[in-house]
Amino acid sequence: MKHKRSFVTAGFFSTAVALSLMTAPGLLAKNRAQTDTVSKLEALTKFTQVISTVEHYYVDDLTINEIINKAIKGLMANLDAHSSFLDAKSFKEMKIQTSGEFGGLGITVGMRDGALTVIAPLDGTPADKAGIKAGDIILKIDDKSTLNMTLDEAVKLMRGKPGTKIKLTVVRKNEPKPIVIPITRAIIKIQSVYTKKIDGDILYIRVVSFDQKVVKDVKKALADNPTAKGIIIDLRNNPGGLLDQAVGLVDLFVDHGVIVSQKGRVKEENDVYKAHKEGTRAKIPLVVLVNGGSASASEIVSGSLQDHRRAVIVGEKTFGKGSVQIIMPINKKEALRLTIARYYLPSGRTIQAVGVTPDIKVPFGKVQIEEDTFAIKEAELKKHLKSELEKIDGKKSDTQSSKKEDDKKVITEKELHDDNQLKEGVDILRALIITHGRK
Q1: Residue 336: is its pLDDT beyond 90?
Q2: 307 an active-site residue?
Q3: 254 and 349 both lie in a single domain
Q4: Which of the listed residues 339, 361, 383 is the one where a domain comes to its end?
Q5: What is the rounded CA–CA span in Å between residue 132 and residue 135?
Q6: Is 321 a residue of the active site?
Q7: pTM for the full model?
Q8: pLDDT digit string (tens) for 108-126?
Q9: Which CATH number fits the domain that encloses residue 129?
């Protein structure tokens, strides 16, 4: 009752305040809208004046379409390293690239601190065979400097007819001067998933890039190796690919919770991807290998598994590409590649420009081991005796031929010692297998 009397007593004052509260926001919103409209008109007037000035006074005769295209390219290039204007030629090339086969080097590049940087060469491609490495900074493409060159311009120069030659001048960490690397372009065909065995009970899965068959191929590898006690997923030098494949790969090993989310200014572009319990291998010990060439989808997989404490991440810090681009056609021939959102891992952290830091940091190199000279002599003697037997038999036995085929599917002790990141991953996985077995 006291509350009601107070309300009645202060009736006029309350009504006045209520009216002012209802009116003020309306006036503020109206004034803000008017200010915004005026600002837009002033900005568009300035833009029109600049275009008119260039059209009339610039030293070269440019059409209005050429001027507008240059203006759009400048705008997109100044937004971020991944947004760009795709003119008719670039749009056509982009469609060719996404069809799965194209003439090129087999190299994924990005802009890091304004420099054209190799994210990763793809396994078995011309760039990989020529010796291009993740982290190389491309200084020149043939005789053209990459300074002030856009990402699209650089990619356009590196693509070309299969069989044609190109020279890349790269700056490499710990090298005293730039290195010139000649490469011959080829049709790029990529096998995205390779599997091998380590010591008979560890399944090694190498994912080269995230194309549309990754989840299917990994599922097959798991089905073909039901007795595997632990798994190593190698994402080193994997530049990324399709988001749904990255989500699907994590979903094979995580049975609940958020895998990744994307957030932007437009609510319709926001999305959350969650794990499902069905078909999940939630308990098998897991190690993931990453390095500076692991980007985008690779970072989603490694970062999400890390946040879920589902895998131990081993290697070096990843590239840091966690933004979402979509192709938005302007007309039938031209389009915009526009960054519309960023990826966020289950913990809420972003990948963009930050990357994923491994749980166990291991720089790449060879494992230093002391050689047992007696063992080497014994091995050489056995090898010599086997060759002598082959001379008597006149040909290699079927057992030896089948053994060679099996060797292609197995990672040897020598291969482990040549790759200390993989060796460290195997050692950690062994400890996880032992711990898992005791539970």
Answers
A1: yes
A2: yes
A3: yes
A4: 361
A5: 9
A6: yes
A7: 0.71
A8: 888 888 899 998 888 888 9
A9: 2.30.42.10
